[in-house]
Specification:
single chain; alpha+beta; 8-stranded parallel β-sheet; 20% helix; 30% strand; globular
Length: 671
């Protein structure tokens, strides 16, 4: 069957413009940066250009809508390997997405959630590493979710750099990295405000004394990266940084490999002046290896001269300052607030009943094929439901009356292996929860949930910042009735405090008091006093979208002629709460789907396909809400554990495009 998408990809693979075939002009990318002006395409669909007010003037591409695309003339890439790509983008909306791909759609090289920059001509440069093939390559850009402008993008090959490391910290030596010699960066403003040393968006100025330069005009959420730093021996090291600030409270986080390993937070003292530099330091443990060293600016308002790594720990007073940074025991840096994580999580899936029930084996071997299959489809979050205090296959992970976790339980080892594997996949976010804890809820055992999360955060607290904790899933009682509001508020508050005592920046998810329906957040969280009082940027709300269950349930009427409002209204209700009481809190639709498989041997209902097409790609994404489809391998099957492959094409519907059986929405497969 040839779909509309197939025809569109075939067209993107040609260079037909105005009825004429264009000869493809090949440009060479060599060990330098090649910039491609957005408007220099040789073919497109739905794209318009306009004059830009960005530095350098000219035109930008804009007025992007879902389904638009652009093709560019062929580039000759010097090698297959890592390239640094920079996008110059602007947007006045949230939820827009840009995809860099092989012209014609043969391969996807990068999926970029474009942030709301505050205006259609308020430009920022976003820097990312991607993998590209070598030789003559046609590149294209696709618009899965519109609402962004693009001025240019650039490619810099790192092939030569990948064969040799920039620097090493040998025993008894130090490696000093001048701030202005970064390899990659993210800066929130265009142009170099200091007009010194380099000509990109990082703000650099000459030092007032001693020669050299410093990075300045630093604001929150900017970052610098130094690639290929070699740590030859596992052990203790000292991180030092030369900083200046007339402010109090500025700080940055230091980590490795884009947040994969957190090292320390460094708090900058008030040094009295922008050019009165002092050295701060922190002792850290680093395993041997080659890393990208990152600096994330959590609170701006300081200047940075250099950062260095010193072999061995140092307890002496830092030069020119008695202020030493405090090294947090919590491994989660401030790389992502909940809002930033929501943008990156995108479409996701539930692992299903592996660790919360007995339907599927609770093993990593059972989980891995499903994780791999969804990841290959571009899904970037997985929710792993876990039942701790109830009996699964004859045993409990945690004591039902105390909440103490059995750390030697073989199921816990399988869970840890599954979590760690998912986190090892670049960009994959992982959510674990307390899923079916009936005795805990029926008997209001707040102390049990508190101790449970105390143990969980101790066991998993050193994991990547992309691991998130959902406090208590669907807190209905065993008879299906709602948990009293006062109980869930108090219970959630106690668990939240235990997590925050260890992980101040780990993302924590709260929810309703029954089925996580759209009305529940407003009923339960009339204020946020038990969970940070609205001042914690690392909290996310949870919502489950099965409304109406008369359609989406396993015994639902799947021939129901639902409308767009049927999907949109519950999300709008949740958003109204999130934007008011929630103070802009992002929302994670952590379950949704249609229970088709109880009464149907195969999934051929176009009405269900349309629901999956609209739910994530149109409705949730337009609100910047990440989602996780419920896929239990049973009534809500998408992935089959029997074959370790997708049972149907609903996985493609979620991202917006999938083939139908015929052209009728409510077809025979819906009955």
């Amino acid at each position: 069957m040839t779909t509309y998408l197939d025809a569109q990809k075939a067209l993107r693979g040609t260079a037909a413009v105005g009825g004429m075939l264009l000869g493809l002009l090949a440009a060479q990318v060599n060990a330098a940066t090649t910039t491609v002006q957005a408007e220099s395409f040789n073919n497109m669909l739905g794209i318009q250009t306009q004059a830009t007010t960005d530095t350098g003037g000219g035109l930008n591409v804009g007025y992007t809508d879902a389904g638009d695309w652009i093709s560019y003339p062929t580039l000759n890439l010097p090698c297959a390997g890592t390239y640094t790509v920079q996008y110059r983008v602007a947007s006045a909306v949230t939820g827009s997405v840009l995809v860099l791909e092989k012209s014609g759609g043969g391969a996807t090289y990068d999926t970029l959630p474009v942030p709301n920059t505050g205006g259609w001509q308020n430009w920022v440069t976003i820097t990312r590493d991607i993998t590209l093939p070598g030789g003559a390559q046609g590149l294209g850009i696709v618009v899965p979710a519109g609402g962004w402008n693009l001025n240019w993008f650039s490619l810099t090959d790192k092939c030569a750099a990948s064969s040799s490391s920039r620097s090493s910290v040998a025993a008894g030596t130090n490696l000093r990295l001048q701030a202005e010699d970064y390899d990659e960066f993210f800066d929130t403003t265009a142009g170099n405000s200091g007009a010194a040393y380099r000509n990109d968006a990082v703000d650099i100025q000459a030092l007032a004394a001693g020669g050299g330069f410093n990075v300045g005009w630093i604001v929150a959420n900017e970052w610098l990266k130094f690639t290929d730093v070699v740590i030859p021996t596992s052990g203790q090291y000292t991180i030092r940084a030369r900083v200046a600030s007339p402010n109090t409270g500025a700080q940055f986080a230091v980590d490795l490999n884009s947040g994969a390993t957190f090292l320390t937070n460094m708090v900058i003292p008030n040094t009295g002046d922008w050019q009165n530099f002092q050295t701060i330091q922190a002792n850290v443990t680093i395993q041997a290896g080659t890393y990208d060293l990152g600096m994330f600016m959590a609170v701006g308002g300081f200047n940075l001269d250099w950062i260095e790594i010193v072999s061995g720990t140092n307890t002496s007073t830092p030069s020119s300052s008695s202020a030493t940074s405090t090294s947090s025991s919590a491994p989660a840096s401030q790389w992502k607030t909940a809002a930033q994580a929501a943008t990156d999580m995108g479409a996701g899936f539930n692992l299903g009943n592996m660790f919360e029930g007995e339907q599927n084996a609770s093993t990593f071997a059972n989980a891995k094929p499903k994780i791999d299959a969804y990841y290959a489809k571009g899904f970037r979050n997985v929710r792993i439901p876990v039942t701790w205090t109830e009996t699964i296959n004859g045993s409990r992970l945690a004591n039902q009356l105390t909440g103490v976790v059995d750390r030697n339980h073989p199921r816990l080892a399988q869970l840890q292996q599954t979590v760690d594997y998912a986190l090892s996949l670049p960009g994959m976010h992982v959510v674990i929860n307390a899923h079916h804890e009936y005795g805990l809820k029926d008997n209001n055992r707040a102390a049990v949930l508190e101790r449970l999360w105390q143990d969980v955060v101790d066991i998993f607290g050193n994991r990547n910042t992309r691991l998130m904790f959902q406090l208590l899933n669907e807190p209905h009682l065993s008879d299906g009735s709602a948990m009293p509001v006062a109980n869930i508020r108090a219970m959630s508050g106690r668990a939240y405090q235990k997590i925050r005592a260890v992980n101040p920046q780990r993302i924590v998810m709260i929810g309703g008091n029954q089925w996580f329906g759209s009305y529940e957040l407003g009923n339960v969280w009339y204020d946020l006093s038990p969970v940070g009082n609205g001042n914690d940027p690392y909290i996310m709300a949870s919502h489950h979208h099965y409304e109406p269950f008369t359609f989406s349930g396993q015994d639902g009427n799947h021939a129901m002629a639902w409308t767009t409002a049927t999907i949109a209204d519950p999300l709008t209700r949740v958003k109204n709460w999130a934007d008011s009481v929630g103070k802009g809190m992002p929302v994670y639709v952590s379950e949704w789907g249609v229970g088709w498989a109880k009464n149907k041997p195969t999934m051929t209902c176009n009405n269900i396909r349309l629901w999956y097409q609209q739910m994530h790609s149109l409705e949730a994404r337009s609100r910047n809400y990440p989602t996780a489809v419920w896929d239990d391998g049973g009534w809500f099957t998408i992935f089959s554990h029997a074959t370790n492959s997708f049972n149907n094409n609903l996985v493609d519907c979620i991202t917006g495009q999938c083939a139908w059986d015929g052209n009728t929405r409510i077809n025979a497969g819906c009955y």
